[in-house]
Amino acid sequence: MKPQVVRLMHEYAECHRHPVNLTIHKLAIPLIVFHVIAMLDWVSLGGWTTAGGLEVTLAWPLVGLSGLWYLWGAPRLAPYAIAHALSCLVLAQLTPVWLVIAVAVAAWTVQLLGHAVWEGRSPAFLRNLVQLLVGPLFVVAHLTGNWPPAEETPSPGSS
């Protein structure tokens, strides 16, 4: 990972120390990514279509730009985050509006409860909006065993 991304991940980790809050984030962040992509998929970009007849929406550049940021900053983790975003883009086409809204309300509610009840700290993105990109990467890093970085993990027997 680029040093800038490692620094951002450390900042994110500072706001996500409680085990219950971490578990909530591992479940809710993928759902938040889904609802954001699904809602952006509702915004047409003036009738542009692909050769296959798919309408290009505001979700497409968001997925593309975030994917480029992930490839630049964390190339080993990027494929996971990009695959999830692309899956969300496909799933968005199949999901009714009411369900997308329900997912958004539920995911944000549990996220905010995690911070208010267990963490006792505000979400990291309130201090730095880039943390909205870091959150999904942080979850991927946790789920793949890539966080904390190996050089920072205490070795067995050390104090």
Features:
single chain; 159 residues; mainly alpha; globular
Structure characterization notes:
By secondary structure, the chain is mainly alpha-helical. The chain has one domain. 64% of the residues lie in helices and 6% in strands. The protein is built from six helices and two strands, in the order ααββαααα. The protein has helices at residues 3-14, 19-40, 59-73, 78-94, 97-119, 131-143, and strands spanning 44-49, 55-57. It has a two-stranded antiparallel sheet. Helix 1 (3-14) crosses helix 6 (131-143), helix 2 (19-40) packs across helix 6 (131-143) and helix 3 (59-73) packs antiparallel against helix 4 (78-94).
Shape: globular
Number of helices: 6
Strand content bin? 5-15%
- SSE run: HHEEHHHH
List low-confidence stretches: none
Number of domains: 1
Helical content, roughly? Answer: 55-70%
Total strands: 2
Q: From the alpha carbons, calculate the radius of gyration and give it in angstroms.
A: 17 Å
Spatial strand sequence of the major β-sheet: 1-2
| Biggest sheet features | 2 strands, antiparallel
How would you classify the helix and strand content by structural class?
mainly alpha
Distance between the termini: 27 Å
Mean pLDDT: 90
